[in-house]
Amino acid sequence: MARATSTSAPELSPQFCFNERLLRDFLRLSRSTIDDSITQNLNALFTPSREGFDPSSTAVRQTDSEAGRTIDPAACQNFKDNVLFPSWQTRSDVLNYCAGVATSPDPDDPDLVLRQTESARDRERVVNERLDPYSARFFPREARTESLANLVRNQRNVEEIIRARTWGLVTERCNGSSIGWEEALNSWRERKQR
Fold it and tell me: What angle do CA 83, 89, 94 make, to 5 degrees?
């Protein structure tokens, strides 16, 4: 099995962020490469050959919980430092960049003139709700920065859930750690800056 590698950062630009399909595809690919296949990635770190091969071991299905095996601490640390944390950091960087784009003015918004026209037209509208009870209901077009901000907010929530799940499996298989994923990631960032 090929070892997992951290996903590389895309070329960050406002156009990348506003292309919500591209942003979602990057996040989905990064998550599927590392987090969604965490069990396989961790199994690839285990080297049973050090213990020798026992032919009788193939007679019964072995599960990780039955075997009570843990992965070599150096292999675990190497995986976390060179694959897991860099992948998480890349996704954080992308989401932080796109959050900045979402909160910045957007002079290139292609729908800006259309939204302004609709807004002016709606202010002039005379509504008789007795004749048309639905006429008062108006859904203004959402600016693409608002749409991007909602996407980033949702993806950050997804990221929290995925990282907690992944970290639970990593600590279980790598001789557990009592610290949470946020603290472990921050510790890695500090070590990396030195």
Answer: 125
